[in-house]
């Protein structure tokens, strides 16, 4: 525990905070309290099972594939912010940067199960994979149809098997969520989710590290004039440390990395996500978004729609992520299909979401 | 020669006591090639299981024990051990006793699930290096006591063999070559668990 009491002369109690200041109550309680806050804000859309820290969609539909996800907390608004009509049926929250337990996941599968089955769309992390697979075994023993899609969209690491799941996972939730809402069968929903992951890439940079509430220390150190390039989403160091460069140059460097890996060419149409990593001011996010958009225009890529804001963060880290998804007609249609969640509210004619 | 439901209850209860006794030893081992929360985590899982051992049927007993461990010990070891017990329970569903061949089948199914979920194979410095030699010894024509003794002896050799291995899966793999020279904490825990069968014959 980062805070502790020292009793001096049995009368004076001194509270020592060996921690980084955060607007929280008690370490270890932050995830449940945060989810309670979210559910108080959106009582018509979502509900919380406080025993398991599972957030469920209200007004569940019985004749659709249920879409669920889960992972460590600290990435807000992922994933509880995406529970609702047209997106997720359940989000399962582990402790900060820690996989949820098998039983938490199993409980969610039992709660949302329909005849059409439960599809988990998760990120490529060892703990998450083991716990989701173990929960699927338990659910299958109960006669629940399950399947799994694992996202590995982060371009920072050269080895595809090692690549981590990042922002494209959220686009997969949106698009697969819409496909499920339309009544598609689990195999088809899985296919479209996999297509999104195969055609999407993400890259992130950090200007500052982040700090896990219970740890009370920063995840790495960066000098004033340094940028960490190719970061994950858990405050782990990136693949490269570069000298500070202005926003426009950073935008170019990051987009180039995505372009190369996706082999995008003139005239291709993309869906774009530009976001801060939790502690980036809106001024910086919008300047950076502008620079990314300008550079994509220069490259003659068409942006079908974009999200700008905060979608998959790393606690209070200051930094940015860019994700692009190469879009075909079906992906575009499902991306624009209606959704009503705390964060994503899609309506016809609204091509930009700002969170 | 067979193993009844009382044997399995005794086994799980003893395993819980032995794991709790070894909590700090396991934590020390884990601090060398892991993140130090292993002993506490698995000990919490077993403590919770003690009050669960009520079923009069082997399959249900193991199923409930596995699920309790998964609920309380949410780390990778807890998930894999819990899934292994659930898988063993599936093979012994409805049984009040099993013979040594059935026992072997149960452990084989357990190993299969652990490999499938954890993505590890024998020889990668994990508790599979204890489970495999143990299970292989479960096919002799000796008395129950002798079979278990021999299997535990093989398990001990398996545990010791992890010292010279390099971890290539799990968190210990981040240590690469530096993982050599340390026993694998999961292998030690699995040996402690299996060894606690000894007193139950």
How would a crystallographer describe the biggest sheet of chain A? 7 strands, mixed
Sheet with the most strands: spatial strand order of chain A: 11-10-9-14-12-13-17
Number of strands of chain A: 17
CATH class designation of the largest domain in chain A: Alpha Beta
Strand order of the largest sheet of chain B: 1-2
Mean pLDDT of chain A: 92
What are the low-pLDDT stretches of chain B, counting only 5+ consecutive residues below 50?
A: none
**Strand proportion of chain A:** 25-35%
CATH architecture of chain B: Alpha Horseshoe
CATH classification class of chain B: Mainly Alpha
Low-confidence stretches of chain A: 1-17
Which descriptor suits the 3D outline of chain B? globular
- Looking at the overall shape, the CATH architecture of the largest domain in chain A is 3-Layer(aba) Sandwich
Indicate the CATH topology of the largest domain in chain A. Answer: Rossmann fold
Q: How many domains in all of chain A?
A: 2
Q: What's the end-to-end separation of chain A, in Å?
A: 34 Å
The major sheet of chain B is characterized as: 2 strands, antiparallel
Percent of residues in helices of chain A comes to 25-40%
Number of distinct helices of chain B: 9
Q: Count every helix of chain A, treating DSSP H or I runs of 4 or more residues as helices.
A: 8
Brief overview:
Chain A is of the alpha/beta class and 355 residues long.
Q: Descriptors for this entry?
A:
heterodimer; A: 355 residues; alpha/beta; Rossmann fold; Hypothetical Protein Tm841, Chain: A,domain 3; 2 domains; seven-stranded mixed beta sheet; six-stranded mixed beta sheet; 8 helices; 17 strands; 26% strand; disordered N terminus; B: 201 residues; mainly alpha; Serine Threonine Protein Phosphatase 5, Tetratricopeptide repeat; two-stranded antiparallel sheet; 9 helices; 2 strands; globular
Structural features, described:
The complex is a heterodimer of chains A (355) and B (201). In chain A, 30% of the residues lie in helices and 26% in strands. With 355 residues, chain A is an alpha/beta fold. Chain A has two domains: 30-198, Dihydroxyacetone kinase, domain 1 (Rossmann fold); 200-354, Dihydroxyacetone kinase, domain 2 (Hypothetical Protein Tm841, Chain: A,domain 3, 2-Layer Sandwich), CATH 3.30.1180. Chain B is mostly helical and 201 residues long. Chain B has one domain: Alpha Horseshoe (Serine Threonine Protein Phosphatase 5, Tetratricopeptide repeat), CATH 1.25.40.340. In chain B, 64% of the residues lie in helices and 3% in strands. Chain B is built from nine helices and two strands. Chain B has a two-stranded antiparallel sheet. In chain B, helix 1 (5-21) runs parallel beside helix 4 (58-72). The interface between A and B is medium-sized, with 16 and 17 residues.
